[in-house]
């Protein structure tokens, strides 16, 4: 079974609420504090946790108190360098950087600049770095493999920001929702309920938004917010394991057509896309406007890998535009097994449906090496594997 969490956001989500829910679910404050020291920002903030009561319900409130009233303003490359130099667990590093990239893309669209040129204000401040990296640390410590999230309440009213008075939801949050077609609704509360940090975490890391996944509930963590609202201002984190039948996941489908790049460059680009985590990459010959022959490049990747894959396509090809779609994929449970044949060992990818084996596929590279070694047809090695 897969370890999963569901973020239930009846009054929205913010970075500190995520931290509070994770700590309430068992994530140790000592570990959080010691790991965050790796960022080298300890002089810029203080971290504390306490119990709070909202409408008679007790939750955990994690407070990030910034030491200076004017914390350093940072750009995306500055934040990436901080995270990469912190020697954090690999998954934490990948998640954290992906969240900030998604946030930079949204802010860039709002201000009309590239992601690297975004001058982060509130969201680039010390507390946001602590919230994002800390949340990724908590999810990693709990062993979470798949993340789900509820629909978001829109909130209302206005909020003061570095650019002046802004309507709620603020522009960056709307852009983040737009990037994933996030479901939203009004709960009648006219306050800022979803912050850019909270939205970026879920838009980047969540596999799906909306209803609860089919799961067994092992633990519930409650993260308290700052404001007193008509509803309990609590983020609920449901931790458990997926039920085997739950196999739907959201993937991104990126497409672009190109008519002035050599096949060798496209082959190199495809290799780079696979290296950063694309699930599949394929090309098709197409006829473009004015009857020019071109190539349609399609990339299927996890949602969190969209920024990396788009960066490669923009950098390595001549495309100036990439289309995005988000689709659900029903993937069978798979595992790699090793089979001993008369020619040697071969890895086999085995697929299960409701705990029954329905497909076995020998690894091509293993079969190829044995066929070349023994000077026999490749098909003979593959048959030997499947006959085991």
UniProtKB/TrEMBL annotation:
Key words, A-Z: Lyase, Nickel
GO molecular function, one term: nickel cation binding
Entry-linked HAMAP family: LarC (MF_01074)
Entries under NCBIfam families matching the protein: nickel pincer cofactor biosynthesis protein LarC
Entry similarity comment: Belongs to the LarC family.
Keyword DNA repair (UniProt): no
Lyase found in the keyword field: yes
Superkingdom of the organism of origin: Bacteria
Record organism: Dactylococcopsis salina (strain PCC 8305)
Record-given protein name: Putative nickel insertion protein
């Amino acid at each position: 079974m897969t370890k999963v969490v569901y973020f239930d956001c009846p009054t929205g989500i913010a970075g500190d609420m995520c931290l509070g829910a994770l700590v309430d679910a068992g994530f140790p404050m000592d570990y959080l504090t010691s790991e965050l020291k790796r960022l080298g920002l300890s002089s810029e903030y203080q971290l504390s946790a306490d119990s709070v009561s909202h409408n008679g319900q007790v939750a955990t409130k994690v407070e990030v108190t910034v030491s200076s009233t004017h914390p350093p303003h940072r750009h995306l490359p500055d934040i990436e360098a901080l995270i990469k130099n912190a020697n954090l667990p690999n998954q934490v590093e990948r998640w954290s950087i992906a969240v900030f990239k998604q946030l930079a893309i949204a802010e860039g669209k709002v201000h009309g600049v590239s992601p690297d040129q975004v001058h982060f204000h509130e969201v680039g401040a010390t507390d946001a770095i602590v919230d994002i990296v800390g949340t990724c640390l908590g999810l990693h410590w709990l062993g979470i493999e798949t993340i789900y999230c509820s629909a978001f309440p829109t909130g209302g009213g206005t909020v003061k920001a570095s650019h002046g008075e802004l309507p709620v939801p603020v522009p960056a949050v709307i852009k983040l929702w737009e990037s994933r077609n996030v479901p939203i609704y009004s709960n009648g509360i006219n306050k800022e309920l979803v912050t850019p940090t909270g939205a970026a975490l879920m838009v980047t890391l969540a596999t799906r938004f909306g209803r609860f996944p089919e799961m067994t509930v092992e633990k519930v963590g409650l993260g308290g917010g700052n404001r007193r609202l008509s509803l309990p201002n609590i983020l609920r984190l449901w931790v458990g394991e997926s039920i085997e039948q739950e196999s739907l996941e959201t993937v991104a489908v990126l497409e672009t057509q190109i008519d002035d790049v050599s096949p060798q460059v496209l082959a190199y680009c495809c290799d780079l896309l696979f290296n950063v985590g694309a699930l599949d990459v394929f090309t098709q010959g197409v006829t473009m406007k004015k009857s020019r022959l071109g190539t349609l490049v399609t990339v299927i990747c996890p949602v969190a890998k969209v920024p990396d894959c788009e960066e490669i396509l923009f950098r390595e090809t001549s495309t100036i535009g990439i289309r995005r779609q988000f689709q659900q994929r029903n993937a069978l449970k798979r595992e790699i097994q090793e089979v001993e044949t008369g020619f040697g060992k071969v890895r086999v990818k085995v697929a299960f449906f409701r705990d029954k084996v329905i497909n076995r596929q020998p690894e091509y590279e293993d079969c190829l090496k044995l066929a070349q070694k023994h000077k026999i047809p490749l098909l003979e090695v593959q048959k030997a594997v499947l006959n085991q």
